[in-house]
Structures are given as structure tokens and as C-alpha cells.
Amino acid sequence: MTINTKNFINKRLAFVSSYFSSAIIINTIVSCFVVFSGINHSPSQGKFNWFLVLTLISLLRIANHIYVRNSNNLKYHLYFLGVLMTGVTWAVYPILFFEQMVMQEKFVSLVVFSSLAGGGVNVLASDIRSSISYITCLLVPFSVLLLLQPISDENVLGVLGLVLWFILCFVTATRTAKDVKSSINNELKLDQFIENLENDVQLRTEQVILLEQKDNLTKLFNRGSFVSNVELDLANTNNDIKAILFLDMDDFKLINDKFGHDFGDFVLAQTGKRLVDTQTQGDFIACRWGGDEFIFYSRNSTEDALYDCVFRLVKTLTKTVSMDSYQVNPSFKVGLYFTRENFELQEAIKYADVAMYEGKKNRNEISVFDERMHESLKREEILRSSIKECVEKGDFHLCYQPIVDITTNDITTFEVLLRWQFNDEFIPPSEFIDIAERYGKINMLGGFVLEQAIASLSKLNAINSGIGLSINVSVLQLESHNFLGLLTGFLSKYAVKPKNVHLEITETVMIKNLPYLSKVITEIKNTGVRISIDDFGTGFSSISVLKELSVDYIKIDKSYIDNICECSKDKSIVSAVTNMSHMIGCQVIAEGVENTEQLKVLKSFYIDKYQGFLFSKPVKFDQALKLIN
Ligand code: C2E
Ligand code: MG
Ligand code: MG
């Protein structure tokens, strides 16, 4: 442990000044005693003057003690100067008045001088210069004078004085000074130890607070501390416009997949840093809500100022992020909810989230929560909260749409499509599947479909053992750990052949989690169940990926079939996809075939199967049975 010299000097100064008053008092008493008491057998004006000089020096020393600041580096040396001047004044005393003194006075004076010198050892111990010079001034001139006298008694006194001087200077004073020095050092070490300990504790406390309140990667507030900070601000709020912004980075998953997780983390950390910078510039609170989602609270006096702030924020966040040779321009979808009223924070966050989600759907960079969204949110909440109850009540049922062999026109498979009749209203699957996926109901709903479908397949197979059933599954179902167990459980419970079960996975969602999904798909295929890629052409899958996964069917999306007669581009795409699929041993199904012209074109491409209103709309189970009969 190294000790700061400044601290050392301060301590010494404190030591010197703590003994200062006693030093002055003793000096004054002893000088009075010497000049005015009964030992003074030779009173004179000279002695009185000497006393005045000593008193003047004491006053100067007192002034130094009181008026010179401790922070002044000179103060410590001024103390020494004061001691030296006092010592010299004492040294002068025997020189001036030796001749006038009688033997008894000389003897008593030497005793007094010796006691003063002895006292000086302790009082001046922290400054060896002071103690040595003070003791020397007091004893040496006086003793030498005594030694020089012809009278042997006086010589003995002189020797005694010098012996005492030697012991006091070279034994007592040095040792005491050493002790004081080491005690000051120990004290300093203790001070420093305590200071370090306090710093450590403070640092640890800050770290704990940081861990508790901040997100590690982005250094932004985490959910909990964001909520409490915003609520505090709302409680002290005025008439300002208060806004919640929900920010979601576009295609963060792609950034991660393409450049690796380290770069993905770097992009998030940069976003956090930019938000922190923005936060420190104004009256904002930012937080990482999770993953690539951020929330921002802001207060502004006018709507214009608020928009200004949002635009500036987006501009900052979308600047290029680069690390080594990697670089991206992150883009965001921002949902904005604002009001002059006081709001319930959780609700405001939900509104901003809804606005952001709308922006994602419509590809708007900034979307403001409005009345229309409020209505649709209310509807969404009603639907979300009714799904489970409606499954139990039997308001959900399955429809079956035939998939037909294009050459024989025989039904080979039915696609199972879920229907929801809710309070006399038909809710389209595009609406409720999305809600079920976003609110964690899809596993329950998908499980219901899976069981119902496999149960009905066993009835269909009782009539025609070759008929298959194509079941739509959400990627979220595949990601749930018990999916495979559930599937094999139903297969054995209803004793259906696995090869008659086809699972349809939508291409767009499939590409987002390819590494994980390919593992699940392989496991499913090992049970004998077939795999179809639904809505092919709406995502980015390449045929080589499908080969890797060894999928069984590709369902070309209806959007390519709609204009296949007129649009030569669609024609060539469908033809090329069909050829390549055949090359990798995969059959092709055309979706949404509505007229014979389309069918003719598809036949000319040697597509394997088709599905669409031309052959049949989705029908109830009884009708499906009739169709295969
Ligand atoms: P999808 O799997 O692509 O289903 C085909 C959709 O096209 C069905 O719509 C079907 O009724 C419709 N369709 C078939 N042929 C024609 C046609 O010739 N013309 C027109 N205009 N439409 C046709 P639906 O039943 O509304 O289903 C929409 C989507 O909802 C489905 O698309 C599927 O992705 C999803 N879906 C339906 N049921 C389920 C389910 O049980 N689970 C999951 N996860 N998704 C489901
Ligand atoms: Mg489908
Ligand atoms: Mg489809």
C-alpha cells in the first residue's frame, strides 16, 4: 500500500498543531518563571526586553497557527521557523545575562532549560528538525558557557548539560520522532484501508444497482426500472403531451443469422448507446423491452416538438452500424401512443405496441395509435379471451378441401381448414390464427386441430385407406417441445398410418428459424409423416434448402396461380419451380385453382396435384365423406 505524501504532511501538521497550545503555554509560564520569579536574582531591563521578544515570537507563532490555512504548504515550515526563533531566543538568554547570574540562578536556570528541552522532545516529536534545533538552542550555548568558566562546579553543570543534550538529541528525540512517524504511517494506512473499503462497497453497490436496474447489453433501463421511473415522472406530471414509443428492429434475426450473434449483440448495444445518448440530451426515459424491442417515454409541450423528437430519434437509430468488415443500416418500426391525459403505463405500452405491429404489417416506419386501432384492439381482446372457451363449447370446427391428382382428377388428400363461428359471425382464420399465435393460444388451438383431424382421418381411411389429410401447423407449434410427442400420441391413439398425415408449414415463417426447424422436420419425417411447404413463393426458400429438408410437397401459392394464364412471368416461375422440384423428388401442388384455363396451363407443366374452388370449396366432414364415396 503506498501512502500519499500529501496525506503524510497533513497528518504531521495535525500532530504539530495539536501540541501547539501546550507548547506556547509552557513557554510562557517558564519564561515568566525565569524572568519574574524568585530565582531571578539579577532583575534588569534587558531581561524584560528579552521576555517581550519571546512574547512577540509566540504571538507570531499563534498568528501562523490561527490564520495560515492548513492547505498552505508553508504552514508546516512556519511552525518550524517559530520553534527555531523561540529556541534561538532561549539560546540568547544565558549569553546575555550569564554575567549577572549568581550560581544558584545558573543552576536553577539550567534545570529549567533542561526540562523545557525534555518537554520539547515529545511536543515536537513529529518534526525532528524542530526538536533537535530546539534542544540544541536550549542546552548547548548555556552548557558551553558553563564549561568555559574557571569554577569547577559550573564546569560540572556544563558537562551535565551537554550529556543531557546528547541523550535528548540522539537517543530520545530520534526514537520518539521515529515512533511518531510510524504511528502516523499506521494511521494513514488505516485511513487508506477504510477509504478503499468504502470505495469498494460503493462500487459494488453501484454494480448491484446497475444489474438490478439496467440491461447488461444495452445499458438501458430494464422493464422494471423503466416502469418505476416513468411512473414517478407521471406522478409529478403537468399538462405536457406524454408519449410512449415502441420500437422494433426490422429483420434483426436475419442480421444475427447472416453476421453472427456477436455482431447482432453489437448492433443492439449500439442502439442502446444511441438511445442513452438521446436520453441524456433531454427529458426521456429509454428501456430495452426485450430482444430487439425498445421502449421510449417522452414528455413534450407541443405535438410538433414530440414529432420532432421522434424523427430525430429514428434518424439517429438508423445510422450505419459497423464492426470490422461488417456493416448494417438498422431500420425500425415505431409505434407511437400519445395523450395529454395521464395514462396507465402498461396500457400505453400495449397501444404503442399495437401501433408498431400495424406499422410492420403496412410497412410504415412510424405509426400512431388511433381510434381505428383502438377498436380493432378491443375486438382482438374479445377474440383472444374467447378462443379457449369457444374451443370447449365446440364453436370451432374443421372443414376439408380436396386436393386432387391433376391427371386422374381423383381426390388424394384433404386440407384441413379451421373455422370459427363466433356469435353468428364468421371469423376468418387469417385473423384468429394470428391472434392465437401472438397471445400464446396457438398450441392449445393447434392441438385441438391435430387431434380432431387425425380422428377424422381414421374415419376417412376406413372408407379409403389411401386418403391423406393435410394439416396446417404453426411454426410456434413445431417449436414447442411436446409437439412430436403429441403427434405420435394421436397417431397411435387413432391408429392411422403416418404416411397419410401431411403437415403444412408456411414458407415465410419457416425461413426465420431454419436450423431449429430442420431438426424438428427430420424428427417428424422419421415417424413417416409427410411434410408440405405451404404458400411457396411468398418467402425466400430456395429449392436447395427444400432438398436439404427432403420435403415431400411444395404448394405453390395462390398468388402465382391467379394470373397464370395472362402473366408470362408467373408461368415461367411455376414451370421452373415444378421442374426443379421434380428433380429433387418433391411433388408440386397448385393452390387456389379457380378455372379450367388455369388447370390447362398447370397440366401442361406436369404439376402433380391441385386444390381450389374449381374442384371444391372447403366442405364439412359429411360432405368430404360423400366426396370420397
Ligand atoms: P392456406 O393453408 O394456404 O389455406 C388455403 C386457403 O386458401 C384457405 O383459406 C382456403 O379456403 C383458400 N382457398 C382454397 N382454394 C381457393 C380458391 O380457389 N380460391 C380462393 N379465393 N381461396 C381458396 P382459409 O381457410 O381462409 O385459410 C387461410 C389460412 O389460414 C390458411 O392458408 C392457413 O394458413 C391458415 N389456417 C387455416 N386453418 C388453419 C389451422 O388449423 N391451423 C393453422 N396453423 N393455420 C390454419
Ligand atoms: Mg395450408
Ligand atoms: Mg396456402
What's the short version?
By secondary structure, the protein is an alpha/beta fold. 62% of the residues lie in helices and 15% in strands. It folds into three domains: 5-192; 223-369, Alpha-Beta Plaits (2-Layer Sandwich), CATH 3.30.70; 388-628, Alpha-Beta Barrel (TIM Barrel), CATH 3.20.20.
Describe, in plain words, how this protein is organized in 3D.
The protein is of the alpha/beta class and 629 residues long. The protein has three domains: 188 residues; 147 residues, Reverse transcriptase/Diguanylate cyclase domain (Alpha-Beta Plaits); 241 residues, TIM Barrel (Alpha-Beta Barrel). It has 23 helices and 16 strands. β13, α19 and β14 form a beta-alpha-beta unit. α5 runs antiparallel to α6 and α8 packs across α9. The model has no long low-confidence stretch (mean pLDDT 90). The protein binds ligand C2E and magnesium ion (2 copies).
In total, the number of domains comes to 3
Helix content: 55-70%
Q: What is the third-level CATH name, the topology of the largest domain?
A: TIM Barrel
Tell how many strands the DSSP assignment holds.
16
Q: How much strand content do the residues show?
A: 5-15%
Give every kind of bound small molecule, once each: ligand C2E, magnesium ion
> Kindly state the mean pLDDT as a whole number?
90
The spatial strand order of the largest sheet comes to 8-9-11-12-13-14-15-16
Tell me the number of helical segments per DSSP (H or I, 4 or more residues long): 23
Supply the CATH superfamily name of the largest domain. EAL domain
Which CATH top level class of the largest domain fits? Alpha Beta
Low-pLDDT parts are: none
Shape: rod-shaped
Question: The biggest beta sheet, please?
Answer: 8 strands, mixed, barrel
Architecture (CATH level 2) name of the largest domain: Alpha-Beta Barrel
Task: Look at the helices and sheets and give the structural class.
Answer: alpha/beta
Determine Rg (CA atoms, Å). Answer: 48 Å
